[in-house]
Specification:
24 strands, alpha/beta, 38% helix, 6-stranded parallel β-sheet, single chain, 918 residues, 33 helices, Rossmann fold
């Protein structure tokens, strides 16, 4: 008989040959027996367990994407809870009170800065089980865990730090008043959310910009494995935990990287999704079931899924649900109804939940309404949560997600719990305060609350109190307090001066683009044996575009599974090579993930005590244009490293069209205070900028900044570094590249200053020649390496003048360099005019900017530059126009020049090189 391949289901063949029909028949008979003896519900359970075991043993069967709306771990398999249940319950009550009062007091008259109460109220148990039993601090022998706390739950973390003695009442009262809350002359304040830049010894990961937390957590876990597999640090005992909201899971970034974690088998990663069923405005899935939806997606992506749906009070009911009636009601009840149940009472739940089926109504016929109301959801049951966490940390081969069913506003009272407006409720009415106090058994008298309902007291027992002693002991055993961030402890050896020598010599007669010049510099830097291992090249599937494929066979592409295939280009010198200890982070077509990888590497000096140098090179249009929010989060996390916007400029990447033509990334970069942005023209400028960046970010006094360099793909002869070049000018933002010559024109020639950056510098030099040759005008050409840094210096001066308006203030670099020059100043770049406009207010005298405003388009470089009027002849005409307006030359010269150079004819443009790649 001929065996033929059958159809494919979930990537797996389903029509395999039956090699033992008798055994198959026995298995089928066994299934029939289970159905006959135990019923369909029992048979279904057995089948589900078999499928789970098959997946654990890697048999290769389709994964389960959905299970019943019950706990994944049955009560019979739960481990014993190792903690003191009573003390932990009392600790949680203290935390609930202090967290809520922190936010409530921030709403006192005259302050009213807001805050969120309900998120932490729903997740307190989720955090506390971890804090007391799982989350390891930085003094743990294994190095400590990385915890991504849910942003809106920050008051709970502050409340715990208060009990631990890390924060005081004055700090809590400064919640969301970071520059205005002074106590005895000392600023005492807390940021609203996890912001490492604002609180650098406390918070480690910024998370409140929805979707960034889960994305960065995945790449943090990936980076931990990267460090381990490269032999840089043993991270085998470090776990990454990410606490997320079910509403947050609608962000594309929250789910868009699940396959990365599954493909790399990141069993050092656990997501904990707080499924309180509510967004900011209402239910996440009113007509559906978000927990079930997430289960299906995570399972389908290859994750281990643990659902924590019901508290222990449901266990006897489920145990007696022989025919599945209760499970059926649970499965068929929508999230909108579950939310409404909690906003009512036990009688309502009886009528609208249990009485949907006479069999379930019979289960609770002898129960009081209060008994029914006490039935809790799994995310509030520390025993259920402990079982899930323990199972997650013991699971191998895949990441785990824990889906915990909770109630938003839990414990806050009937006006909060499960209400649509809960997220926006920031304070408690007097009656709510009293009810809340009573439920938590806080030692606060009615008179205290009545005398000043805006300032209920915080509650902190003394250090000898058993609750505080227990809390402190648990953290000592687990390696110290969390959250905690630690800064620099180690330094790396930076490359010697000789590493920069080659690119400073220029390219001789060879034409190369600045993108390639940067890659050549990187190769030279990587020859330093001490420095090279710390470099993390990050490339989103464009290595060949950027001329970086030469790195493939040398430092190789990181893949935790190595390379288990023969690459198609195996015989070539530049063959595609993957390795378990590979150095290149090749993220695929994935700019957002690349920034996450950059962030993990760029903060390794703090998260691991091992400084790493991420160098992320990308299409400049797909950097700040697409991922500015992620770069902002990297800045918040105090990341360091190099962002290289390759194929930059609006007219340089010919042929690609609107969505590829970058005319504005320096402007977007300028909005990020931590980004130092440069637009170098030549390779020797790049050498000095990179050297300066390494020293500033990784030298003896490291700064929490990132360097952004725009480099181009237009080939040109890279000149050798001029003798006595103004290195300080390169670093600070501009220097005199080529003074105008008076040879043949006389000392009374009209003067002008032309400022240009990046690929526009050759056009400025072209204009310099045209002006002198055709009109006797002598122009100086300045290379502006950073419009942004020049502007920042100006802003610093303006702030100083505001503070001391009548004092002496030194000139800015722009003022000092241009103050003694003659003639109008014309500035140009391959970006929109807003780029050179950044320094307008500090340019002395007449200032004109040219730029590529508008959408980019596919055409030749020369035609595009003529269209935008930024090429050499256009610059020359702009100079003549300004001179004419100032009465220094006849206006006919400007009119004649425009006609002579055919400025209105895009086919007449010649500025730039017509060919070339990176």
């Amino acid at each position: 008989m001929t065996e033929e391949a059958g159809p494919i289901l979930n990537g797996l063949p389903t029509n395999l040959p039956d090699t033992d029909p008798d055994e198959t028949s026995e298995w089928l008979e066994s299934l029939d027996g289970v159905i006959e003896q135990g019923g369909q519900n029992r048979a279904r359970y057995v089948m589900l367990k078999l499928l789970e075991r098959a997946r654990e043993r890697h048999i290769g069967v389709p994964s389960l994407t959905g299970t019943d709306y019950v706990n994944t771990i049955p009560a019979s398999e739960e481990p014993n809870f190792p903690g003191d249940e009573n003390l932990e319950r009392q600790i949680r009550r203290l935390l609930r009170w202090n967290a809520a009062i922190t936010v409530h007091r921030a709403q006192r008259p005259g302050i009213g800065v807001g805050g969120h109460i309900a998120s932490y109220a729903s997740s307190a148990t989720l955090y506390e089980v971890g804090m007391n039993h799982f989350f390891r601090g930085k003094d743990h022998p294994g190095g400590g865990d990385h915890i991504f706390f849910q942003g809106h739950a920050s008051p709970g973390m502050y409340a715990r730090a208060f009990l631990e003695g890390r924060l005081e009442e004055a700090d809590l009262d400064g919640f969301r008043q970071e520059h205005s809350h002074y106590v005895d002359g000392e600023l005492r304040a807390l940021p609203s959310y996890p912001h490492p830049r604002q609180m650098p010894k406390f918070w480690e990961f910024p998370t409140v910009s929805m979707g960034i937390g889960p994305m960065n957590a995945i790449y943090q876990a990936q980076f931990n494995r990267y460090l381990h597999n490269r032999g840089i640090k043993d991270t085998s005992d470090q776990h990454v935990w990410a606490f997320l909201g079910d509403g947050e899971m609608d962000e594309p970034e929250s789910r868009g990287f699940l396959q990365v974690a599954a493909n790399e088998e990141l069993d050092n990663l656990t997501f904990v999704v707080n499924c309180n069923l509510q967004r900011l405005d209402g239910p996440v899935r009113g007509n559906g079931k978000i927990l079930q939806e997430l289960e299906a997606q995570f399972r389908g992506a290859g994750w281990n899924v643990i659902k924590v749906v019901w508290g222990r009070g449901w266990d006897p009911l489920l145990a007696n649900d022989a025919d599945g009636a209760l499970v059926n009601v649970m499965n068929s009840t929508s999230d909108g109804d579950y939310q409404t149940f909690r906003a009512n009472d036990g009688a309502y739940v009886r009528k609208h939940f249990f009485e949907r089926d006479p069999r379930t109504a019979e289960m609770v016929k002898d129960w009081t309404d209060e008994d029914i109301w006490r039935l809790s959801r799994g995310g509030h049951d520390y025993q259920k949560v402990y079982a899930a966490y323990k199972a997650a940390t013991e699971f191998t081969g895949a990441p785990t997600v824990i889906l915990a069913h909770t109630i938003k506003g839990y414990f806050l009272g009937k006006h909060f719990a499960g209400r649509n407006a809960t997220h926006q409720m920031k304070k408690l009415a007097l009656d709510d305060l009293k009810t809340f106090r009573d439920r938590l058994d806080m030692p606060v008298d009615d008179k205290v609350l009545e005398n000043d309902p805006y300032r209920p007291p915080y509650v902190k027992p003394g250090d000898d109190d058993p609750r505080i002693q227990y809390l402190q002991e648990r953290r000592r055993e687990l390696g110290g307090y969390l959250p905690e961030r630690r800064g620099d402890r180690k330094f790396i050896s930076l490359p010697a001066e000789k590493a920069y020598a080659s690119v400073r010599k220029g390219s001789g007669n060879q034409e190369i683009a600045t993108t390639m010049a940067f890659v050549r510099l990187l190769k030279d830097l990587m020859r330093d044996k001490e420095f090279a291992p710390h470099v993390v090249p990050i490339i989103p599937d464009e290595a060949r575009t950027f001329g970086m494929d030469a790195f493939f066979p040398t430092i190789k592409i990181y893949n935790p599974h190595g390379q288990n295939y023969t690459p198609v280009d195996n015989e070539l010198f530049l063959s595609y090579r993957e390795a378990k200890n590979g150095q290149i982070q090749h993220t695929g077509i994935n700019e957002a993930g690349s920034v996450a990888a950059f962030t993990a590497a760029g903060t390794s000096y703090a998260t691991h005590g091992v400084p790493m140098v991420p160098i992320y090179i990308f299409y400049s249009m797909f950097g700040f244009q697409r991922t500015a929010d992620f770069i902002w989060a990297a800045a918040d996390q105090l990341a360091r490293g190099f962002l290289i916007g390759a194929t930059a400029g609006r007219t340089t990447l010919t042929g690609e069209g609107t969505q590829h033509m970058d005319g504005h990334s320096p402007i977007i970069a300028s909005t990020n205070t931590a980004v130092v942005s440069y637009d170098p023209a030549y390779s020797y400028e790049i050498a000095h900028i990179v050297k300066d960046g390494l020293e500033r970010m990784y030298g003896e006094n490291p700064e929490d900044i990132m360097y952004y360099l725009t480099v181009y793909n237009e080939p040109l002869v890279q000149p050798a570094e001029p003798e006595n070049v103004d290195v300080e000018g390169i670093r600070r933002g501009m220097y005199l590249l080529k003074p105008g010559s008076f040879d043949g024109v006389g000392d009374d020639a009209r003067r002008a200053q032309v400022l240009a950056s990046g690929v526009a510098v050759p056009w400025a030099l072209e204009a310099q020649e045209l002006l002198k040759q055709d009109y006797g005008v002598v122009a100086d050409v300045w290379s502006v390496t950073s419009w942004g840094e020049l502007r920042r210096e100006g802003l610093v001066k303006d702030e100083a003048i505001h503070a001391d308006p009548f004092g002496e203030h030194p000139d800015t670099w722009v003022e000092s360099k241009l103050g003694a020059t003659e003639g109008p100043v014309v500035a140009v770049s391959d970006y929109m005019r807003a780029v050179p406009d950044q320094i307008r207010q500090w340019v002395p005298g007449d200032y004109t900017t040219l730029g590529a405003d508008g959408f980019g388009f596919s055409d030749t470089r020369a035609a595009a530059r003529r269209y935008f009027h930024i090429d050499g002849p256009s610059i020359a005409v702009a100079v003549l126009q300004r001179l004419a307006r100032n009465g220094e030359v006849p206006k006919e010269w400007a009119i004649e020049a425009a006609a002579k150079y055919k400025l209105d004819d895009v086919t007449a443009g010649t500025s730039g090189n017509a060919g070339g790649d990176a």
